């Protein structure tokens, strides 16, 4: 298989994974089930349930798991080592006879007036991808209070303050979802961000 064909297959799978999580978010908005005081794991569990019952998941032959342990070869194997392995919120996998692809999503709660949550989005979200602790995936932000644009501006202000102005989040056009952002990083290239606004009232 040519490199171009592999890239096309990978891009198609990534788009399907993002479409599944966006559809789960839209279902959650319709059902009005997400509470604004929930932890991010509560929200992820609920979205994962909607992915699991989406018929497209089966049509596209995608399996999913939550809280997936990422094995690292440099981990010293001693009692309790498994509990110390990094975990990522969602793993989506597809396969063919000769190939298996996976895609990872890390979720973070956000609030416009919480610098701590914005800083956490950078330190345990963006930085975990740029350090390659997490690979091959995207970040998903759950906005629980305030305005999305002002929240993104706050994240960007922190990046600029840290002399990382080249890494700010920039909104990009997307056929899959309107609140789609990208950031550029010298270590990994483009990092993708999906921002889910749970403050929206339908």
Can you describe what's shown?
With 202 residues, the protein is an alpha/beta fold. It has one domain (3-197). It is built from six helices and seven strands. It has helices at 3-31, 40-52, 55-59, 81-84, 115-130, 148-161; strands spanning 62-69, 87-95, 100-111, 137-145, 170-171, 180-185, 189-197. It has a seven-stranded mixed beta sheet, sandwiched between helices. α5 links the parallel β3 (100-111) and β4 (137-145). The longest helix has 29 residues, at 3-31.
Mean of residue pLDDT?
Answer: 91
- Largest sheet features: 7 strands, mixed
| End-to-end gap | 46 Å
Classify the helix fraction into a percent range. 40-55%
Order of helices and strands: HHHEHEEHEHEEE
Strand content: 25-35%
List the helices and strands and how they pair.
Blueprint: H1 3-31, H2 40-52, H3 55-59, E1 62-69, H4 81-84, E2 87-95, E3 100-111, H5 115-130, E4 137-145, H6 148-161, E5 170-171, E6 180-185, E7 189-197
Parallel strand pairs: 3-4, 4-7
Antiparallel strand pairs: 1-2, 2-3, 5-6, 6-7
